[in-house]
């Protein structure tokens, strides 16, 4: 059985406002991308890693991160797309064959080996899965002029994270259909839902934050020091 990870680092980092890719920000002396690469590399269930980066990052990431830190499982470094979904598609297109594909945001450095093991196991059973956590806040659906339309029952609301894992054919089919239909979503599970396949959520960890805005770096440094 072959399990391939697609690790995403081709975003624009607009909300971080750094002016350069946030996965290259140094945290505790190492680039953000190093953290998730290390966990994927260490996990014995992962056979290869396809890294997806912005075009101008390819050489730097190869020399200073992949070769520099001696990561051995990185099989390809490919260029990302204009949206996260297209970056995943480019990564997927570089995968010749896999049984299960694990998609992870390079901007989520606190992934654990347990999460990877959990999503791979559920992907083999169900076909598609993601880690997530029950929402702590009350959510309201807002209409025009910030007027509240309704308040969904929080007991059924979860915040979805990565890693997400899929049987290779399901993810490929979901992406190809999304392209055909011009559908764009913020995560890969949504594309699988759209083609009518089952998706199961595995309980993850609130610490598995996505570094999105500057205050997330402060939170990350605190979490790393625990
Ligand atoms: N076109 C894109 C957009 C996002 N990502 C990756 O998807 C993950 C989640 O995206 P997000 O944190 O929202 O990153 P950015 O798109 O960089 O952020 P922003 O929307 O603020 O520009 C990140 O690891 C990011 O590098 C990607 O590979 N390609
Ligand atoms: C996939 C994801 O991490 C799930 O929470 C998230 O949707 C990606 O964020 P983006 O801002 O849409 O790129």
Can you tag this structure with a few keywords?
Spore Coat Polysaccharide Biosynthesis Protein SpsA, Chain A; two-stranded antiparallel ribbon; 7 helices; binds cytidine-5'-triphosphate; binds ligand LQXTBERG
Structural topology:
Blueprint: E1 3-9, E2 26-27, E3 30-31, H1 32-42, E4 48-53, H2 58-67, E5 74-79, H3 84-93, E6 100-105, H4 113-126, E7 128-134, E8 141-142, E9 148-150, E10 158-167, H5 168-181, H6 188-194, E11 200-203, H7 214-225
Parallel strand pairs: 1-4, 1-6, 4-5, 7-11
Antiparallel strand pairs: 2-3, 6-10, 7-10, 8-9
Helix pairs in contact: 5-6
Approximately what portion of the residues adopt beta-strand conformation?
15-25%
**Whole-number count of domains:** 1
Helix content: 25-40%
CATH class membership: Alpha Beta
**CATH architectural category:** Alpha-Beta Complex
Multimer state: single chain
Q: Separation of termini? A: 36 Å
Major sheet: 7 strands, mixed
Ligands, deduplicated: cytidine-5'-triphosphate, ligand LQXTBERG
Strand order of the largest sheet: 5-4-1-6-10-7-11
How are helices and strands ordered from N to C? Answer: EEEHEHEHEHEEEEHHEH
Question: What is the overall silhouette?
Answer: globular
Number of helices, counting only DSSP H or I runs of 4 residues or more: 7
Radius of gyration: 17 Å
Mean pLDDT: 97
The CATH superfamily label reads: Spore Coat Polysaccharide Biosynthesis Protein SpsA, Chain A
Unreliable parts:
none
The computed structural class is: alpha/beta
How many E-type strands? 11
- At the third CATH level, what is the topology name? Spore Coat Polysaccharide Biosynthesis Protein SpsA, Chain A
Function: Catalyzes the formation of 4-diphosphocytidyl-2-C-methyl-D-erythritol from CTP and 2-C-methyl-D-erythritol 4-phosphate (MEP).
Site (Transition state stabilizer): 15, 22
Catalytic activity: 2-C-methyl-D-erythritol 4-phosphate + CTP + H(+) = 4-CDP-2-C-methyl-D-erythritol + diphosphate
EC number: 2.7.7.60
């Amino acid at each position: 059985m072959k399990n391939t990870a697609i690790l995403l680092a081709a975003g624009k980092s607009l909300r971080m406002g750094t002016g350069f890719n946030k996965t290259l920000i140094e945290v505790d002396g190492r680039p953000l991308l190093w953290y998730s690469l290390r966990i994927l590399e260490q996990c014995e269930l992962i056979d290869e890693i396809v890294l997806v980066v912005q075009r101008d990052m390819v050489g730097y990431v190869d020399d200073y991160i992949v070769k520099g830190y001696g990561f051995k499982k990185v099989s390809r470094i490919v260029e990302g797309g204009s949206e996260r979904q297209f970056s995943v598609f480019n990564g997927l297109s570089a995968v010749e064959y896999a049984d299960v594909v694990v998609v992870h945001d390079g901007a989520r450095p606190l992934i654990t080996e347990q999460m990877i093991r959990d999503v791979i196991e559920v992907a083999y059973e169900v076909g598609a899965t993601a880690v997530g956590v029950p929402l702590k806040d009350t959510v309201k659906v807002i209409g025009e002029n910030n007027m509240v339309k309704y308040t969904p029952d929080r007991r059924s609301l979860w915040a979805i994270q990565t890693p997400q894992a899929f049987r290779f054919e399901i993810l490929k089919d979901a992406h190809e259909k999304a392209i055909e239909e011009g559908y764009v979503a913020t995560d890969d599970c949504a594309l699988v839902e759209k083609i009518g396949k089952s998706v199961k959520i595995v309980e993850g960890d609130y610490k598995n934050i996505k570094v999105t805005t500057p205050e997330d770096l402060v939170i990350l440094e605190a979490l790393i020091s625990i």
